[in-house]
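[retry 2/3] TROVE domain-containing protein: previous attempt timed out, resubmitting with same input.
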Amino acid sequence: MVRSFLKHVNIRRTPQREPIPGSVQVPNSAGGFAFPVDDWTRLERFLILGSEGGSYDATERTLTIENAGAVIRCLEADPVRTIRSIVQVSESGRAPKNDPAVLALAIAAGMGHTEAASAALPKVCRTGTHLFTFAEAVQGLRGWGRGLRRGVASWYEGKPIDAIAYQVAKYRSRSGWSHRDLLRLAHPTTGDPARQAVYRWVVGGAGALGPREVARGGSTASYPDVSEHLPRLLAATDEARTADRATVIRLIREDGLPRECIPTEHLNDPEVWEALLEAMPMTAMVRNLAKMTSIGLLTPGSIATRTVRARLADGDQLRKARLHPLAVLIASSTYARGAGLKGGLSWEPVKSIGEALDNAFLLAFGSVSPANKRTLIGLDVSGSMGFGRVAGSPLTPREASAALAMVMVRTEPECRVMAFQSKFEPFPIGNRERLADVVRRAEGLPFGGTDCSLPMVEAMRKGWPVDTFVVLTDSETWAGAIHPVQALREYRRATGIPARLIVVGMVSNGFTIADPDDAGMLDVVGFDASAPEVMNGFSRGDL
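[retry 2/3] TROVE domain-containing protein: success.
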């Protein structure tokens, strides 16, 4: 019946290796043609996905250069909007990593937007590690002027004393920079004895806290004794360096000593980790599940295991901690494997911890309202999706897309999943299926060419009623006899269903299969923490 209908409909079919006549399509990296995304979309993709790992058809270096070019063009067009976007993505927790936002802010500073970049610095660079990354990027891009030095000084001067003590204790150095380097560069000033004590501790250690006289330009500057004003956390850090096990545990519980301040010889002690767990930040807890299991702290039925499970089940805590879904996915995938990708650490996974991570992955996306639409999810599992890494994680785009599909399956009551390359393959996902198993199944699928029209073509061939097609892809499509947008329009005309298309970009390149001039098509960024709710709103017709 569908074929009979199509005989009376004049629809132009264009092979994907040719552009659609009259369109704005451009060559993608695989030899096919796709729609270019504008610079603002590219900026958003870069801020969320970065360019680490590259893709099969475009190297990491090429993607980084192209994305940096988009950042520059956005800054040239509207620096206020660009810096606002950088801050918004960074503060909202939408991105798996903060490094792309830090780099983009450094580019803004390098282009002369020093005052605005300095004002945004404490919002984007919330930790010492972020600040070191910014410093290294600035050094490579432009060097230091008075405005940027003042901005770095304000970073130290603007934090409460307990917060700055925590930063200098926990985050010592990165990217060839340390707090000592930055304090000597920026010269923050203060009349507060406690803040003076922190600065002097960073630069010279505990021995620099006493009264001092320093010769400067023919005169002598006197500095008072500030040793009694040193924040207790920094004094505890000094004490821990030579402390015994019992003392270290006391310092953890009484003074909040973080793991980074614990001497190496105590880091295989279950009781030390038990003390750390009591106040351990959520992100640190998730990162250290394997370590705590390997040393015997997390065991089936233990108090520590129950503590971890309860915290992972608390959606409010997950959101307040800005724990990104990708961080949970990485932790789940790694934990289920029972061995790290690097080093010799191994462990016997605790089943209830794995289940808690699965649930936390869904909770980390926040509240997602179902669209209640007939949905077909197409997972691109072609060769290009099996290469590179998503946002610098150990996961390939095909693994990450399978995990996103699992979120949709758990949300939508009428949802069908298929995998495609140059041919169709069913990929059912059960409501009770383990996250790690779904990811592993996706990685085991056969590779092939990329034909992103197949979800629509297959739905038309099988007579499936579909309200929303969701295609998770890198948009490097080239193998089909018809472009995806043409296939969608054929489906609409053949069935009478005003079907929508959501394209989830899993790589930060410059292409999409969605026609930007079609209001029934939406391009979103893969592993944007807000993506599932945005997608469902579009599917419902709210957007």
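[retry 2/3] TROVE domain-containing protein: Residues 1-10, 54-58 have pLDDT under 50 and may be disordered.
[retry 2/3] clearing retry counter.
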